[in-house]
Write a sequence for this structure.
């Protein structure tokens, strides 16, 4: 138990040689600082890399068509085919584990030729034909107006929702946007909404230069008919898209007379699979961070252990007197362990505080200079602080265990004889 006299004894022992105490504590301070900073930097790298996924539902995949590589049912290899609107309906009806199946068509590109005009201003933008549920797969902040609706789909309305950089490119500052018209490849569309991507890292240049129009309007205005360029498919929560995608591929192969073993005819990008790989990589990096940090911390703990052994040797006569006056071995052992524990925890908590300051400075710099590629918001959670505290407690006990055992093995008579 701690009491005032015990605290005074511990503080007196630590103050007996302040420089030695400082050097001993610095090893633990530096070890815990390295541990916390390594975990924070790992999280910053993870946040930056996963930001490339945007806020798109990670339990999703994109699917498109490619040339066949095997002949099948009299059809040659190298044949190209297109998805149809009927394929979307077939996927929804025959594969119940899918939450969203969004057909998409695409026109142009923000680095391509000018395809949008308003008055004397022109711009090259990404034009997408989409369904209303796409906003649930790729969350967006609607800044003005609204997103696409099913009435737009059914009535094939010539309306559009435009990104913030489209507004900057085609409109004057503070100009009213909603209800105005822009011309896309010679066809007039009324602007019903503006958006930006819902993420903390700022708008991706391509996303901000995007225009969404109803899928059916896209097919009619740009002569795509019922063709589908590609699909964004999302599975229900709790069901991995990776476990479902082969059923989708088999269904499309049977509908388009593709050899069942043709693995290249259907192209796809599995966000869930890629996301899991990235999470696995950063889990390994986190383990490496703990490993390296604990190794550095161990050097500080060894230093405390050595210093406590020296302290015990220096206080041999004192220990003999205490034993002669009736102090039990557990009382002697408890004092040595408490001294070691307090030194370890105090220096460790200072290290945690110092690393928290460094993390705050890094985030302040990132906020001032803007997003950095593949790095964002370095931070650690409270579980890391609690883990560090547990490591410090265990380390402090281990550091004092050998000196404490050595102190209790001394016989009072022998201890008193030592000069």
């Amino acid at each position: 138990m701690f009491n005032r006299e015990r605290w005074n004894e511990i503080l007196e022992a630590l103050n007996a040689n302040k420089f030695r105490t400082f050097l001993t504590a610095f090893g633990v301070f530096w070890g815990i600082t390295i541990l916390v900073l390594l975990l924070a930097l790992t999280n910053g790298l993870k946040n930056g890399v996963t930001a490339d996924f945007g806020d798109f539902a990670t339990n999703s995949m994109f699917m498109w068509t490619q040339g066949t590589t095997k002949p099948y049912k009299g059809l040659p290899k190298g044949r190209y085919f297109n998805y149809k609107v009927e394929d979307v309906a077939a996927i929804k009806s025959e594969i119940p584990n899918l939450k969203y199946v969004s057909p998409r068509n695409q026109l142009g590109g923000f680095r391509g030729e000018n395809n949008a005009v308003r008055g004397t201003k022109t711009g090259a933008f990404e034009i997408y034909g989409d369904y209303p549920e796409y906003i649930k797969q790729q969350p967006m902040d609607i800044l003005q107006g609204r997103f696409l609706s099913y009435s737009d789909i059914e009535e094939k309305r010539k309306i559009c929702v435009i990104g913030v950089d489209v507004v900057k490119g085609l409109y004057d500052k503070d100009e009213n946007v909603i209800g105005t018209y822009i011309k896309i490849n010679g066809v007039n569309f009324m602007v019903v909404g503006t958006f930006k991507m819902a993420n903390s890292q700022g708008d991706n240049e391509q996303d901000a230069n995007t225009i969404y129009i109803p899928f059916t309007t896209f097919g009619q205005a740009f002569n795509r008919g019922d063709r589908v360029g590609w699909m964004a498919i999302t599975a229900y929560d709790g069901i991995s898209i990776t476990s479902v995608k082969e059923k989708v591929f088999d269904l499309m192969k049977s509908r388009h007379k593709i050899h069942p073993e043709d693995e290249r005819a259907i192209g796809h990008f599995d966000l869930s699979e890629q996301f899991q790989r990235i999470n696995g990589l950063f889990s390994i990096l986190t383990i490496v961070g703990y490993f390296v940090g604990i190794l550095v911390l161990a050097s500080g703990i060894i230093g405390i252990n050595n210093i406590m052994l020296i302290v015990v040797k220096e206080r041999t006569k004192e220990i003999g007197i205490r034993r002669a006056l009736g102090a039990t071995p557990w009382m002697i052992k408890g004092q040595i362990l408490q001294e070691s524990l307090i030194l370890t925890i105090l220096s460790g908590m200072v290290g945690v505080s110092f690393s928290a300051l460094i993390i705050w400075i890094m985030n302040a710099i990132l906020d001032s200079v803007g997003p950095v590629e593949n790095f964002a918001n370095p931070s650690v959670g409270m579980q890391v602080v609690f883990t560090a505290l547990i490591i410090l407690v265990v380390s402090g006990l281990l550091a004092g265990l050998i000196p404490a055992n050595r102190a209790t093995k001394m016989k009072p008579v022998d201890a008193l004889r030592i000069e």
